[in-house]
């Protein structure tokens, strides 16, 4: 794999094709005018599955931030999201050489048509806010030992982020568990779901009886998430249970409510819990923290630098 040079300087702009759209408003706020550049600009394009054409990197990041983080969040939180999303995209696509899915398995992406539909009459104002966050972080990425990190992020932790080791068994120095207490005020912090026993049994490879719920053993890891669930000789990882049930996180409890004759599962947090908590980032931004301070908190011993796309 070719490595890209990283420089602290401004991204080389000697190139063809337009760069990230800059929001340009008339007095009536009628249009968003794309920024254009010189003919020979060095530019990275991202191939998004389902899109007809490749998309300039910064335009792609605009669509990711709009999809992944509420536009109501503070600009510093949006900037932190932009830097994390840009890093994740370049790492995952090998600087645009591999296509990326626009889904939660990778990064959700909304094109301009989707953003207009979602934001309706407030499209121009929301687009301006997102694009400003992108422009102010243009080209910035997160590095560890001069290599792009795997910049994982999630909506809401259970009060503590998950480590890479707790999630997948691999210890990654910059993905360690940190406190994120403010997540407990997130609207996505707690959830409860119910199933009849018949509905529940359709989801599992075994058939449960009401008495089985008293025999469940849940083993938790250091971040308070379920490492494994054991029922007799049957064992599932917390991640397997989350996928099987479609629940928000791996911090869960399971009971059978005999009065209602239903299985009840309560969860805390939303997402895999690794890396930056988006609601935690918003809380830090509300406290006056900058995007850089947010990223240095959730990713340990990292650097934030600009890529130089001309030094390929």
UniProtKB/TrEMBL annotation:
One Pfam family here: SpoIID
Superkingdom as given in the UniProt entry: Bacteria
Domain spans labelled Sporulation stage II protein D amidase enhancer LytB N-terminal: 53-144
PANTHER family, alphabetized: AMIDASE ENHANCER, N-ACETYLMURAMOYL-L-ALANINE AMIDASE-RELATED
Name listed for the protein in its UniProt record: Stage II sporulation protein D
Organism lineage: Bacteria, Bacillati, Bacillota, Bacilli, Bacillales
């Amino acid at each position: 794999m070719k490595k890209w040079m990283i420089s602290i300087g401004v991204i080389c702009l000697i190139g063809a094709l337009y760069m990230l759209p800059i929001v340009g408003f008339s007095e009536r706020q009628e249009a968003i005018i794309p920024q254009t550049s010189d003919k020979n600009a060095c530019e990275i394009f991202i191939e998004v599955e389902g899109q007809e054409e490749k998309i300039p990197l910064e335009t792609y990041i605009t669509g990711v931030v709009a999809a992944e983080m509420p536009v109501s969040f503070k600009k510093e939180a949006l900037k932190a999201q932009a830097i994390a999303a840009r890093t994740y995209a370049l790492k995952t696509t090998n600087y645009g050489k591999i296509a990326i899915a626009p889904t939660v398995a990778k990064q959700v992406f909304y094109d301009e048509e989707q953003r207009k539909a979602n934001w309706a009459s407030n499209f121009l104002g929301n687009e301006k806010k997102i694009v400003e966050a992108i422009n102010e972080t243009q080209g910035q990425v997160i590095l560890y030992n001069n290599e792009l990190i795997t910049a994982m992020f999630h909506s809401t932790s259970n009060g503590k982020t998950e480590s890479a080791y707790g999630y997948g068994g691999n210890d990654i120095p910059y993905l360690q568990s940190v406190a994120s207490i403010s997540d407990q005020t997130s609207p996505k912090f707690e959830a409860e779901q119910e199933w009849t026993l018949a509905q529940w049994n359709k989801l599992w490879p075994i058939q449960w009886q009401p008495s089985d719920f008293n025999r469940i053993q849940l083993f938790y890891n250091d971040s308070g998430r379920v490492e494994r669930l054991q029922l007799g000789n049957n064992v599932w990882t917390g991640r397997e249970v989350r996928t099987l049930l479609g629940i928000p996180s791996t911090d869960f409890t399971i009971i059978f409510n005999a009065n209602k004759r239903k299985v009840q599962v309560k969860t805390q947090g939303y997402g895999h819990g690794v890396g930056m908590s988006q609601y935690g980032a918003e809380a830090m931004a509300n406290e006056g923290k900058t995007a850089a301070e947010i990223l240095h908190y959730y990713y340990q011993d990292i650097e934030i630098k600009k890529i130089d796309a001309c030094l390929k």
